[in-house]
Structures are given as C-alpha cells and as structure tokens.
C-alpha cells in the first residue's frame, strides 16, 4: 500500500526580498469555468480529475493551512506521485514560489539526489493554484508513532533516523540555508511498511517499520542566510530559546529542533508540551537548568525580572511544569553506553547558547552514530569520495548504481 505525505497544519511562511524564482518554462492557461475553489481557497476536485492533461487525481493524502496534498498518477510515466496543491490565496502562492526556489537550488547543489531531501519532479500554476509534484513517500515518523499508539522507536532505529536528519540538514546548512520547521511531521519514511507483533504485557499490537530510510520535506519556511529572517520560526514544541527570546537565529535553531525530535522518537513523548512562551521557558529551566544570564539580560521580551525568569512555581501552571517535566538526566532509561551516548548528543543539541550548540558536522562524528554499519555512514563515504579523482568517483558511482539495481 502506498502511504502519503503528512502535512503540518501550522506551517509558518516567511517573506523573501530577493528570491530569483522564475517560471518561464511552465505555462499556465486561462481558467476554465469548471475550475472552482471553496471559500477557503482550496481547489475543488473530484477523484479522476486530470490536471494539465497529465496528473490524474486518485485520493487526498493530507490537508494544511496552505492547501492539500493529493495522490496522483502521472499519465506520462504511469508512476504514482504526490501533488501539493496550494490554495488560491496570495500569501500561500508566494510562499510556494519560495519553496520551489529552494527546491530548485537544492537540486542544483545535489543533482544526484543523495542528500535525503524530497525530490521535486515538476511544478506548475493551475489557475492560481501553485502545484508542486513530489516523489511518493511513506508516513511521517510522527504519523507512524501515532498509529503505533506512541510506542517509541527502538534505539537502533532512532540512531539511523537521527543520523540521516543530521546528514541532510548539514547539507542545507552548507548551502547557507536554515530549514526552520524541523519536526517529526516533516521527516518521512521512504517506505513505511511495517511488521506487526503482539505485546503480551501491554496487550496490544506493536508495529516496527521495516526500512528506516527517510526524506526531509516541507521547505516552505526554509530561509537563506541573505534573506529576511522572520522573528518567529519553528513549530512551538521544537522552537529554540533564541527564537522565543527574539535574539536572532541562524542554523543552530535547526540543531535544537533535531535534539527535541531525537528525544521524542526514543521516548514517544514531546519534550516541551506547551503552547505558551513563558511556560516553555520554565520547562526549559526545569529540564535543562537556568537560562544563561547573558540571554536573559539581552532579550527585550517581558519574561524576565532582574535577569531571572518571572515564573511562579506555586501557580497551577507552575505545578503543571513541576509534575510533567524533570531534569533531562532523569529521562535516561538505562546506564549502558548506548543510552549515555544518545542522551549526550541530545544534551549537546539542547545547549542554550547557539554558539555553544554542537554543529551537525560534529554530530555526525558523535559516538552515538559510530555503531551504524559502514554502508549507512554517508558522510564517511563523502569524505572518501572527496579524496578521489573525478574519474574514480564516476566509476564508483556507476558501480554503486549497478549494485542497487
């Protein structure tokens, strides 16, 4: 069964002052009277409709504030692909153009599609609806977790998923790009087929995904270094302290998000389960210790009094934080080396000071990932390739392609 992309309903969009997006090669015809939108700007379609004489709609895969993702058959290639249909609303249309620009730049930088970002196959303007065609992928790591009753992933699977996140996002950072919306909904399995077993103690089924290869999706908020940086980025639970404190942000805010995701995948719970900035900061202090004095003094936000968080431990919110959060070390379920390494890398990703936070190049060399099989250590393969002549690189690529076939 082909699974579909999950779409986040709260995806933020950023403005850009200087995107070089262009669409000269992608024609769009006048809108026929049969094409209609609903009151929210979604395209009204039926299963079996064909867009641009090429994409036949099979079913709806997901819906968000920006539009819908539908499963379609590309009549030209007879392949099943995913089509993101943006609302006929100006701000979402402009955001989609920015996403297309990012995806085109990433394709230029990674022509062989080795960096684990979702592949854009085509895009077009369908009567005011920007449409982006993607490869079909499986469930998001969040949806798989949800369908598995929030039973966490085994440590070996967290290791591989986490490594791939670091590898893929490092590629973005090397290209002066920050994703800004990393979360489990935006990490998709290439194929989410699973094996089911029965847990006799818990009296419920447990699903285990067979293949942990992933793709990074949703570049609608991705921001180049030279572009306008919106004050608020990231979905709440994965938002770094420098963003909440409005101290400016850059690539390290992605690293913070990855740390939160690793925790969630391994324990099946969200690290910062809140919807309020002050409470979020109180949770951080409960889990990670006091915020640095420098950050408290520098912020112009109103969450502090004399350089300390203005927070009442005895209030109902204070009790909630005390009862639902504990120091990060107390979440470690075992004393063995694997657990020490996992929580060490999470600690280093959750450094308050962005300048002190581990970089993704450093993360890839962390002992937690050292136990991965050599064929999965993609950065090591890159290092070896970088030391080879172009001729040898080409020969090795040909050999690996023939092996994968």
TrEMBL record:
**Keyword Glycosyltransferase set for record:** no
**Gene encoding this chain?**
LOC106459931
| SMART domains the record matches | S_TKc
- A Pfam entry, by short name: Pkinase
Please report the stretch or stretches of sequence annotated as the Protein kinase domain.
55-369
Which residue windows does the record flag with biased composition (Polar residues)? 1-23
Give a yes or no for keyword Transferase in this entry: yes
This one is known as Dual specificity protein kinase CLK2-like isoform X5
Q: Which residues bind ATP?
A: 84
